[in-house]
Amino acid sequence: AGVHVVIGTPGRVLDMLGKKVCAVERPPIIVFDEADKLLDSMFYSSISELLKILPPKRQMLLYSATFPHSIEGFVRSNMNSPRKIKISEQNLQNISQYFARVKSTTKLPCLKSILATLDIDQCIIYCNSRANVKNLARKITALGMSAYFIYSDMAQEERNIVYHNFSSRKCRILVSTDITTRGIDAPGVNVVINFEMPSSSESYLHRIGRAGRFGSRG
């Protein structure tokens, strides 16, 4: 029997098709999960090559919590009379949002005060770079609070260990890049802190969406 479902990154699926590891013998159904991420500059060339070698008669499904202009442009260029199905509006009613206006030199003392004051079950703190993630995790640990860190360039085995330990509540604080904004569920997270603000409103929504899940408050 042949393979019915192939799951992978665009580049890996393209590689498997090119090496004839799997073949498309009938009109395929193509699913892009987290479509807003897949259609950014990092993956777009692989997506374009993938669509060139797949049969023109196909069904494409795009799933995303946010639909930026990149998706709208892709839809106009590659889909025929598509239908948009909106499950519900983005629900932020369970999430309380606050901001603190501080100087760069007082960000760490402010963070320390927040961590000591809030009733935290588990917390994810976001930075925009690998170096800043590692540096902040070390500083939090030096303050006497245990903190894990995670970013995309870590070995997969290391990331799995960090995620497993955090999800099993062996640690309350996780310092992260945007790698944890998608595809993970940590029900214990009730606080999200943007130590560095993201570059887009979409990233902001994905970040704060780690809290207040499944009807809980964050």
From TrEMBL:
Localization: Cytoplasm
MF (Gene Ontology): ATP binding; helicase activity; hydrolase activity; nucleic acid binding
UniProt entry keywords in alphabetical sequence: ATP-binding, Helicase, Hydrolase, Nucleotide-binding
Chain ranges of the Helicase ATP-binding domain: 1-85
Domain Helicase C-terminal: 110-218
Gene3D superfamilies: P-loop containing nucleotide triphosphate hydrolases
One term under GO cellular component: cytoplasm
Keyword ATP-binding: yes
Pfam families tied to this protein: DEAD, Helicase_C
Family named by the database record: Belongs to the DEAD box helicase family. DDX6/DHH1 subfamily.
UniProt name for this protein: Helicase C-terminal domain-containing protein
Species the sequence originates in: Homalodisca liturata
